[in-house]
Structures are given as C-alpha cells and as structure tokens.
Design goal:
heterodimer; A: 267 residues; mainly alpha; 14 helices; 71% helix; globular; B: 281 residues; 11 helices; 0% strand
Chain lengths: 267, 281
C-alpha cells in the first residue's frame, strides 16, 4: 500500500473513532469556538475605544487574524500526533512501536489523529476572514488568490514546524513543554496585530528566527496594497511565505536528529 | 463544651487539608518555572499591544497607562488564582467512584473540597507570582524599561484595599471552582460547561482585556456581573484607579457575589449528593 492510501486509511479510522463520541466531540468543538471568540472581542474593543492603529483598521487586522488562526487550526488538527508526542509516545514508550513498523515515523504520527475538535478555531478564523474580505472589498484576481493560498499553506507549514519542534524537545524533556505555547498560541496572538507596533528585537525574532510575520504581516501588506512603514520590498512580501516551508524542512531535520538520539523510557 | 471541641477539631482538619494539598502542589516546581517564561511573554505582548493603541489616543481615557501596565502584570502574576480548571484528583474520584469514600468522611463535603480548592488556587500562584513580581517590579526598571515595569500602589489605602480585595477574589474564585465541581458530579465529564465558563470568565473578569477599555455603553453591565471581582476590582484598587468611596462599594459587591455563589454551590451540592449514583465497581 502506498503512503497516501495508508494515510487515508489512518484518517478514516480516526474520524470513525471520534464519531463514536459525538456529544463529547460537539462539546469540545463548541468549547474551542467559544475560547477563540473571546480573542476577537478584545480586538474589537481596542479598535472601538482607540480608533485606527497605525493606519490599520479593524477589518484589515481581522484579515490578519483570520489568516493566522485558520493556518494554526489546520496544522494543529493535522499534526495532533506531534502535539501530544511527549505524553503519548515518549513517556509511555510507545514510540518504540512506531520505530519497529516498516513505515516512516512521520507518516504514522501524521496519521495518529485528525483532531476534528481543533477545527472550532478554523470555523471562527474563516468567518472572521470572510467578514474582513467583504468589508475591504478586496479584488480576488488570480494574483491575490494565488498569494493567499501560498500564504495559507506557508502558514500551515510554519505552525506544523513549531509542533515538530515541540515534539522533538520531548525526546529530552519527556513531558510536553509549556514554553512552546509561547511560540504557537503566543505566536498567533502576536502576529494577529500589525508587526510595526512591536519593538525591533521582537520584530526581528518573528521575521528571521520563527518567521511568523512572513505568513501574515508581509503577504497581507501585498494583498491589501499597503506601503510598509518598516520598508520591506514588494518582492519580499510576495515571496516571504516560502520561509514557512523552509522552517518546516529545518524542523524535520531536527526531528530526525532527535529520533537518532532517542533512548526509550523502558516503560 | 463538647460542640466547641468538635468544631475546633473540624477546623484543624480543614487546616490540615489545605496545608497537605498545598505542599503536594508545591512539588511541581519545574512546571511552574516553565510557566513563568510563558507568562512573562504573554504579559509583554499584551503590554506592547495596549501601549501601541493607547498612544494613538491617550486623552480622556478612564485609566492611565501605568495603571494598565500594572493591571496586565498582576493579571499574569496571579493567573493561577483564576478559576480555569477543576481539581484533577476530584475529577478522577468522580469518574472512578472514589467520591463514595469522600462522602463517608466525617467532614462536610463542600467544606472539604473547598479547602482542597484553596490549595489548588494558591500553591502554583505563590510559586509563579513571586519571581514574576520581582521581574516586573525590580528587573524591568533595572533593564531601562521602567515604563513597562510594575509600580507600587500609590498609598497605604490602596495597598490595604488591594489585600482585602485579593482575599475576596480568592474566595470568589474558589466558589466558582466549586460550582464547576458540582457540574462535574452532575454531568460526569463537564467538558462543555467547564470549558466555556472559564473562557467567558476570562473576558468578563478583565483578564483578556482590562475592563475599563471596553466601550462605555457596556460598562454598566460589566459593573454588575460577578466575574469583575476576580481580576478587575483588586487590580484597579492596587493602582489607585478605584479609590475612596468607590473602593468600598466594589468591596461590598465582591462580598455579595462571594456569599451568593458559595451559598448556591453549597445548596446544589447538598441536593445532588442526596441522589448521587456512584460510578464504578
């Protein structure tokens, strides 16, 4: 069986098992929707009180917000196996089993679960994005659509990379690390506002080390046809989502390095 | 004579529950340290965002920037006090039937679990808040970022008011957590309500965004709801944003909600344990 067919089968099994607990699924889905709705309330309240933010209005910031949250929701649904890697695979020693099977570890972890409950964030992100796009009357010509897709996929790759880093760290720490939340949830929180409001070291960190601004701020400037007060070039804005894929590849190298260093907990 | 002895031994038992649970929870030091980094990071983002907005339109705002900064840092330092989760051991007992042993103890179940809840809400908070406060009060000004630092209360009245208000906030938080435990007994998993309730509480208490920054027309409503007493009241008293007679009114309001929610939790627990079906075998 080729990998894609196997992955498909994994996902079907995962969906079937989640549908066995339909009420529980619905409740956690609604729960996640509720948790993410509160963030948009805060953004709305800030705009209502203070007016525009450095030439960004509410709808433009909502476009950023929708894009980032959708990308994060999709990655965390797809890579739920990496997200809970520490407690589920390293601590229990179950990772040994994955290593023994004649298939790649990444494929097995990807197929571990398609976490439908994580899609609560996606529904909310898409709704906010659609509202913003209608408000801003963006012309969806072929260029903008392609750039949007490129940005979304770059974002999914980047957040996936962060989850892979989180998983790799647990080879050494066993437990999953709360510190990584600053980069996933904290990252989402950070780049849903325009990058130019932050201090320079903070901007540099989110552009060059964990390039979250490259899948939000920079391409959105190009889509909205805004000039960047930070002076980034149009070509950079359009190409920057590629850094998301680069980041994912680097983190996979880190993961395979971790796999080589792995010693079983023996339990 | 006999009754007073009995109640004293009861008090000792409750005190022992709090102390034992507190010491157990203090063991998770590495987790608390990791949480510290996370909370400093969140505090920094919140402050940068608020400062960026505030500087656009600083005139005529109901709260000053240093007061907002204090609000954010205190919120991060005392996050553990917030009713975000239930006691995981209680949840486990309800699922596996261990709650039967809790019921045969010669202690009132509500009081017993309330004591466990006090320990839950204070142990991690002590571990996290002290280094956080040192960071925000001492370290930030030393690093030359005094405008981002946490300044001390303006006067003794603010400090005293803050201390009273903080105790009431703890009592309120425990009362809300106890209501979540009641939901847990009632529904066995509580995934839905016990997830959504903290989310709403986070917004309505001022934890996500300080309440004075919400639109003016919402203020009367925000004033009236119980969650304000968890975060907004103590932190605004600390920075002197609420003072004098206003402070007394807010403290009374906190006390009112503590009484109502504790009474409600106690009554529902009595009613529910009367018809309790024990899980497990």
């Amino acid at each position: 069986m080729n990998s894609i067919a196997l992955y498909w089968q994994y996902i079907m099994v995962s969906l079937k098992s989640q549908m066995q607990y339909r009420t529980s699924f619905l409740l956690s889905f609604v729960g996640q929707l509720g948790v993410t709705v509160i963030e948009i309330v805060a953004i709305w309240a800030l705009f209502d009180r203070f007016g525009e933010l450095d030439n960004w209005n509410l709808a433009e910031v909502c476009l950023l917000y929708g894009l980032v949250n959708s990308a994060f929701a999709i990655s965390s649904a797809l890579l739920s196996g990496f997200d809970s890697f520490g407690p589920l695979f390293v601590k229990t020693g179950n990772f040994d089993r994955l290593l023994l099977r004649p298939r790649s570890v990444v494929l097995q972890l990807m197929g571990h679960e398609l976490a439908l409950r994580r899609l609560g964030r996606l529904v909310q992100g898409l709704l906010v994005f659609l509202w913003a796009a209608v408000q801003l009357e963006i012309v969806w010509d072929i260029q903008n659509v392609l750039l949007l897709m490129f940005t979304l996929f770059g974002g999914i790759a980047l957040f996936a990379g962060l989850l892979v880093v989180q998983a790799t760290m647990s080879f050494w720490t066993v437990e999953s690390l709360e510190v990584m939340n600053t980069l996933t949830y904290g990252g989402v929180q950070t780049v849903q506002y325009p990058l130019d409001i932050y201090s320079e070291w903070f901007r540099k960190f989110f552009t060059f080390i964990v390039p979250l601004a490259c899948i939000s701020y920079f391409p959105v400037l190009a889509i909205l046809d805004k000039t960047d007060p930070l002076g980034s070039h149009f070509a950079f804005q359009v190409l920057s989502p590629a850094l998301g894929f680069v980041f994912l590849m680097v983190t996979f190298c880190f993961f395979s390095f971790g796999t080589k260093k792995y010693t079983s907990t023996g339990s | 004579m006999k009754t007073s002895l009995l109640s004293r031994s009861h008090l000792n038992a409750y005190g022992a529950v709090i102390a034992a649970r507190y010491r157990t929870l203090l063991q998770y030091r590495a987790a608390a340290l990791a949480g510290l980094v996370t909370q400093i990071f969140w505090g920094a983002i919140r402050i940068m965002v608020i400062v960026a907005f505030y500087e656009l339109n600083p005139e005529g705002q109901p709260i000053t920037l240093p007061q907002l900064v204090a609000y954010v840092w205190l919120g991060q330092a005392l996050l553990g006090m917030f009713p975000t989760n239930v006691d995981s051991e209680i949840a486990e007992m309800i699922k596996n039937g261990g709650v039967a042993y809790e019921l045969v103890r010669p202690l009132d179940l509500y009081n017993f679990w309330y004591c466990r809840t006090i320990a839950l809400r204070t142990a991690t908070t002590t571990l996290r808040s002290i280094p956080m406060l040192v960071f925000a009060v001492v370290l930030l000004p030393l690093l030359g970022m005094a405008e981002w630092g946490l300044s001390l209360p303006p006067d003794g009245a603010a400090l005293a008011g803050f201390c009273i208000s903080l105790v009431l906030a703890l009592a309120l938080s425990c009362a809300i957590t106890m209501l979540m435990h009641v939901v847990l007994i009632w529904s066995l998993d509580g995934e839905g309500i016990n997830r959504i309730l903290p989310a709403f509480a986070l917004v309505l208490s001022g934890n996500v965004l300080p309440l004075p920054l919400f639109p003016g027309w919402l203020q009367p409503f925000l004033e009236l709801q119980p969650f304000q007493g968890l975060v907004d009241v103590p932190f605004r008293i600390y920075s002197g944003n609420i003072e004098g007679q206003g402070m007394l009114v807010e403290l009374c309001q906190q006390l009112f909600w503590v009484t109502v929610l504790t009474y409600w939790g106690r009554r529902s627990m009595q009613r529910i344990t009367r018809h309790l079906v024990i899980q497990g075998g």
